[in-house]
Every structure is written in structure tokens, then in C-alpha cells.
Amino acid sequence: MTPPYEDPGPTRAEVEAWTGPAVLEFGADWCGHCQGAEPHIGAALAAWPGVRHVKIADGKGKPLGRSFAVKLWPTLVVLLDGKEVARVVRPTDADDVRRALQSIA
Hints:
By secondary structure, the protein is of the alpha+beta class. It has one domain (about 10-105): Glutaredoxin (3-Layer(aba) Sandwich), CATH 3.40.30. About 30% of the residues lie in helices and about 25% in strands. It contains four helices and four strands. The protein has a four-stranded mixed beta sheet, covered by helices on one side. A hairpin with a 2-residue loop joins strand 3 (about 75-80) and strand 4 (about 85-90). Helix 2 crosses helix 4. The N and C termini lie far apart (about 25 Å). The model has no long low-confidence stretch (mean pLDDT about 95).
């Protein structure tokens, strides 16, 4: 079982200060699309143990999701040193996520 989405999670300033690779996953615990994508995301990230993976509860008025212009869940934002380098929206298989992770290779 994966951890729940953090609420409120980090601020945009905190995220931008991170060093190294990271993945922000925006969604909600009750979201069917998020639940369906969970095994694909987990499978892809298993090959990248050094990548920080933070699940962020998103929704109306959530500042971090709005700052990344998140519209659909789940949205994965791949970061390198606090800057977005790739994005995956509603992945349907692990390869969708793997392709985005290649941007931090």
C-alpha cells in the first residue's frame, strides 16, 4: 500500500529549493484515476530508488497544484533541482512514467 497524498504538502518555494531528482504526484486518495494509475507509477519508480516521490493532495484552492497548473489527476511533475523537466497526466501504463523519468537520467 502506498502512502496517502500529503495535505498540505510542501510549498512551491520548498520544492524549488530541492536538489536532485524528484516526482510530485498530484491527486486525491478517493480518485479512481489515481487508484488505477498507482501500480503503474509504483512499477516505474521502483527502478529509480534515488528519486524523491511526494504525493500531494490536490483540489480547488490548493496553491502548489495551481502553481503547476494541474488540471487532471493524477499528474506527475518530474523535477530536477526544483525545476520541471517532464510531466505525465493520467498515465495508463508504467512506460508513460518511465519515459518522463528518462528526462532526469
